[in-house]
Amino acid sequence: MSLLKKRKLESGGGERGVTNEEEDGGGRKAAPQSPGSRKQERDQLYYDCYSDVTVHEEMIADRVRTDAYRLGIQRNCPALRGKTVLDVGAGTGILSIFCAQAGARRVYAVEASAIWQQAREVVRLNGLEDQVHVLPGPVETVELPEQVDAIVSEWMGYGLLHESMLSSVLHARAKWLKEGGLLLPASAELFVAPISDQMLEWRVGFWSQVKQQYGVDMSCLESFATRCLMSHSEIVVQGLSGEDVLARPQRFARLDLARPGLEQELEAGVRGRFRCSSFGSAPMHGFAVWFQVTFPGGDSEKPLVLSTSPFHPATHWKQALLYLNEPVQVEQDTDISGEITMLPSQDNPRRLRVLLRYKVGDQEEKTKDFAMED
Ligand SMILES: C[S@@+](CC[C@H](N)C(=O)[O-])C[C@H]1O[C@@H](n2cnc3c(N)ncnc32)[C@H](O)[C@@H]1O
């Protein structure tokens, strides 16, 4: 299992409250921080996560992700030929280069982290300095010399909305995209399904296996292990297989990136209901959430979809798991329903929070409040 964590966010002191009470080196109390400077500090910590090679290696090595972008861009060749493109969060510059290869006349590769320097090197190595202009800084403040015909961006975090980078894309859309311009990708959808997590079952069952190996019965730790692994409020990022899925997946939200008002929706919370029935009997451990994004079809009939479903080839996004406090036994056709709200955490708006309301069979309705694991 890879220990690499894409987009691990630093807390940035967001939890400390309005005043920073720590003493500075000279023994004086540090000055209170304004909300604006706290946001700036937190954003900087966020961008810093992208200044190292590891995260870019993980993203570019994810063939499902990078090939989907390459194909999604290539399919839109006719719309990009001779046109201008803004790449929001260009990273090492790969998507900007795909756009240039697809015939874009000029690509503005905007990148807020120090990795922009490597993007510039890559652009130079590929002889594309005339076409691809790397612009350092947050897209919210960078000045472009013109409006653009298209925006490309890989903004999706764990559970789609961790990192809250979509707001930056929407900001760029409002400020720099020509009326009716192209968005790559153009939409995102969120799915949920109840799960019986075989890996978790294995980890709990491990404690009953110890006796066979060492002659010490440790099976009494099974319920302790279950509590430790499930009875917390973190969103766990873990890859599942289709076999872990207990019922037909339900789409609970669709975000059309061109939709007016989407930014306010993200702040208030993306919300959706679901209802499904269990395929068979199994211990239900919780729910898995995943997403897909869709690129406009271009000339092709079928739009290109980048899916992070457990039924499709694995991506570095894996799935976002929401564990119940303890397993619930379900039988075939048990009715499972609920509502999911995804919103920014109050302490750090880049950290994903999920409010889950659910009902399993005849049990009373329950709620659980989650935040993305550290
Ligand atoms: C998921 S990475 C994608 C990198 C690259 N486009 C790729 O596909 O390999 C997102 C990048 O966006 C940058 N980023 C995030 N928010 C930004 C903003 N508001 N302005 C500019 N860059 C931003 C991050 O520093 C990071 O390098």
UniProtKB/TrEMBL annotation:
UniProt name for this protein: Protein arginine N-methyltransferase 6
Region of interest (Disordered), residue spans: 1-42
Assigned EC number: 2.1.1.319
PROSITE patterns in alphabetical order: SAM_MT_PRMT
PANTHER family the record matches: PROTEIN ARGININE N-METHYLTRANSFERASE, PROTEIN ARGININE N-METHYLTRANSFERASE 6
Gene3D superfamilies in the cross-refs: Hnrnp arginine n-methyltransferase1, Vaccinia Virus protein VP39
Class of the enzyme per the UniProt entry, highest EC level: transferase
Transmembrane segments: none
Methyltransferase domain residues: 85-181
InterPro entries referenced in this protein's UniProt entry, alphabetically: Arg_MeTrfase, Methyltransf_25, PRMT_dom, SAM-dependent_MTases_sf
Methyltransferase is among the record's keywords: yes
Signal peptide as annotated in the record: none
UniProt KW keywords: Methyltransferase, S-adenosyl-L-methionine, Transferase
Species of the source: Echinops telfairi
Residue ranges of domain Protein arginine N-methyltransferase in the record: 187-363
